[in-house]
Amino acid sequence: QAALGWYDACLSLVPLSNTAVRRDALEARSRCLSHVGRTDEALQTAHTLGTIATNMDHDCVVHTLVAAIQRQAGHLQGELSALTRLTSLRPLDAWHWRRLAAIYQELSRCARSSVQCNGEQSHSDSDGHSNGGSSCGSGSSRNCDTHRPSDNSDPSTACGFQSCIHSDSHDASTCALPNVGDEECLLIIAEWYVIIRYRLLLQLSSASQSAFILDRNLEAQANITSDLEKSGVGETTLMCMAEVLGEDLVTLGTTGDESQGTDEARSHDDTPNSIGQFEKRWFGRLYGVAHG
């Protein structure tokens, strides 16, 4: 709280023309607001910071800041929106994909918990009494629900996977994953994709690394391999995904796409469509591979 007061005082003294110092002070003020639980004000300050961004590095700072604020507040969907924009700006940064993998894993868990909760509730209703031991009323289940897109949003944009399925004439009911609902199926495929891409990027960067940085890289790769083995992902599916991802990385390397950034990614508006656009761009072809 004291630091927040200092940064407010700093901003009142810095002239509007000194954008470099104002950017630093605004970022610090936003982080202070987030730390004391004033999330809305923190996001508004981050938006103000975005209005004086003049290059892609500045945009990356804003998206990283928003992701941190949303994570601090426990808003999974908001963090995902910020990270998809950040990853679109820097698609060859392995650590952005690592965080995306963690988010999709959490969303998959939320979807699974929701299905279990609905099943328990239906069983309870059919028996005519409440199941006192049910976890449906737990805080984690309610939190999962609040991170999903609004029921009023357009499903073709709020869920990029679904729009890909419809446009590519895939049938979600034919998901190759047994005993898994449509929503969880899509999230699991996204999780696999992001994890495999994260490993490929680590492998590409390891050739130029040494010492403790290389050790950290190799340790991360070993953990990914272990996680994939535990998940039960079929070897054929992994090979198909890796093949598609390899083509994509070659394309990125030859076109210089990472340095361009899209208008959607450079925008600082937090909308569900940003997630849909990201998933449609990066996961559309992979969903077909998983069905194959």
Automatic annotation (TrEMBL):
Signal peptide: none annotated. It comes from the Eukaryota. Residues 121-152, 254-276 are annotated as: Disordered. This is ZHX1-C8orf76 readthrough. It comes from Petromyzon marinus.
